Amino acid sequence: MKILWFAWLRTRVGTATENVDPPASVDDVAKLLDWLAARSPGHAEALAKREVVRVAVNQEYVKLDHPVTKGDEIAIFPPVTGG
Amino acid sequence: MAIRVQREDFDVGTELDALTRGRTDIGALTSFVGLVRDMGGEAKIGAMTLEHYQGMTEKELAAVEREANARWKLSATLIVHRYGRLEPGDRIVLCAAASPHREAAFEACHFLIDWLKTKAPFWKLEDTPQGEKWVEAKADDDRAADRWRNPA
Question: Mean of the per-residue pLDDT values for chain B?
């Protein structure tokens, strides 16, 4: 699956895009965030405060229990500040 | 209905003219223009860079516009949002709503900007004397959007 990082989460992780292949047990957003947080200290730091982390699966806002599968585009970002 | 996401500036008069040109059913046209201020919280900012999630941004803005058209009887709507590097005084966003009567146009325009601020995936990075700083989301923006959560 393709992970997209934005804003200060991107600067903590150190990359805008990652292609990852988590185990089949990682089947929802919450488990994916846990799995990603273990990838590097930067990932852990980016995901340390989960209450300020927003997730979109295939460009739609989702909650933590939303399923994830291979081929999904998963964007992870802080609360938006446009306008 | 139209939305645009662009790096370039826009001309407010040209945009509003285009929205109503040739139409004789529109009695009211309202617009909101957001500008870059030179103060970010306590710090004076030199410039800012707007990052966005291309693809999702367009989908979210279109959804905001669709929702406005579902709630009010509107003749035309427009959202133009810029991204990239912007300086104090620069235009960031234009929302416009046209309707036969002013009430719907005023309310819908207010809704467009309040709703997009909490939905559209943009993030502001400010240049401050202390270095680059990501703007934090404001609780005020959530409250502003909340008032539209339960339509009358």
Answer: 94
User: Is CATH 3.90.1170.40 what the domain over B2-146 is classified as, yes or no?
Assistant: yes
Strands (E) across B55-117 are located at 76-82, 84-86, 91-99
Q: What tens digit of pLDDT does each residue of B56-90 get?
A: 999 999 999 999 999 999 999 999 999 999 999 99
- Tell me which of B64, B113, B123, B134 to substitute to probe the interface with A (most A C-beta atoms closer than 10 Å): B123
Within-domain flag for A40? yes
Q: Which of B59, B120, B125 sits opposite A80 (nearest CB)?
A: B120
In sequence order, the 6+-apart residues with CB closer than 8 A to the CB of A33 are A47, A50, A53, A55, A64, A76
What does the domain layout of chain B look like in residue ranges? 2-146
Orientation of helix B139-146 relative to helix B102-119, angle to 10°? 140
